[in-house]
Design brief:
Elements (H helix, E strand, L loop, with lengths): L6 E8 L2 H10 L8 H12 L7 E5 L6 H7 L4 E6 L8 H4 L4 H7 L3 E5 L17 E4 L2 H8 L4 H6 L7 E9 L6 H13 L5 H6 L5 H12 L12 H6 L8 H11 L9 E10 L1
């Protein structure tokens, strides 16, 4: 008999409006009609959360999700994030004091640091039975794409679920010609040097999933069918970050150069067997 696979891919897909509306209609907890709302709704819907379940939340920042899992689902929640300590993004400058925030939420075990980059982090990642990352793209953007694979391999133990939602810009955000380039990138991906694959990691949904599954040694069979660049562009059900998100950044951060990009969310759910 062949060696048993270490990872099973439960889902690799794009966020869609039909599911987002379903999460919203349940109204428990309150879900907003944006990508963050979808990501949190999808994470809550994908695992049978139960008391005592150990959870590692990556890059949550000031998210309500780890607090909800701790308070309402009675999970043991560890959340690792640097709260923008090493970042100059205006988002962090206008945010509350992380030390005060952490003191106000003792039900979550917060760890200040960067998963995949900070080797001195102390938390039970090796025994986590579920891991979540509502906005993994943001986490990896701060760290740099070479860290992407290390984040995946650090996330959970045998029998654990990994749930990651990755922001991905639509190819149309940079014009019609870029759609063709993105499609060509996916077609030629396996022939390209690894340096090129890494440099353009977030160019397409498929390249994000390929890099994650390669880091884990997980199977790719059947994944490409659900992550086509063309489908992403023409499918009206694919969820898009609303214009309100860009407006909020413009008003709160005062950056007149802010431009609205059509952004979707790539969902990756993997079970470590």
């Amino acid at each position: 008999m062949g060696q048993r696979r270490k990872y099973q891919v439960i889902e690799a897909a794009l966020a869609d409006t039909r599911r987002l509306l379903g999460y919203k209609l349940r109204a428990e907890p309150e879900i907003h009609l944006n990508l963050k709302g979808f990501d949190c709704g999808w994470i809550l819907d994908s695992v049978a959360w139960r008391p005592g379940l150990r959870v590692l939340d990556v890059g949550a920042g000031y998210s309500w999700l780890p607090i909800y899992l701790a308070r309402e689902k009675h999970c043991e929640v560890w959340s690792v994030d640097d709260f923008g300590t090493w970042d100059s993004d205006p988002f962090w400058e206008r945010s509350r004091d992380p030390a005060e925030y952490i003191r106000a939420h003792p039900e979550v075990k917060y760890v200040l640091g960067r998963l995949g980059e900070d080797r001195g982090l102390i938390f039970p990642a090796a025994t986590s039975t579920a891991s979540t990352a509502p906005r993994l793209w943001s986490t990896c953007l701060w760290l740099g794409s070479p860290t992407y694979g290390r984040i995946w391999t650090a996330c959970c133990a045998r029998g654990g679920h990994m749930l990651h939602a990755i922001d991905i810009a639509f190819p149309t955000s940079r014009g019609a010609a870029h759609v063709l380039l993105a499609k060509l990138f996916d077609v030629l991906y396996l022939l390209l040097p690894k340096s090129v694959q890494t440099r353009f990691l977030f160019e397409t949904p498929l390249s994000c999933v390929r890099a994650a599954l390669r880091a884990l040694g997980a199977p790719m069979r059947g994944v490409a069918r659900r992550l086509s660049v063309v489908d992403m562009v023409i499918d009206p059900e694919v969820a898009v970050e609303p214009l309100e998100f860009t407006l909020n950044r413009l008003l709160k951060d005062g950056d007149a150069r802010t431009r609205h990009f059509r952004v979707g969310s790539v969902l990756i759910h993997v079970l470590k067997t």
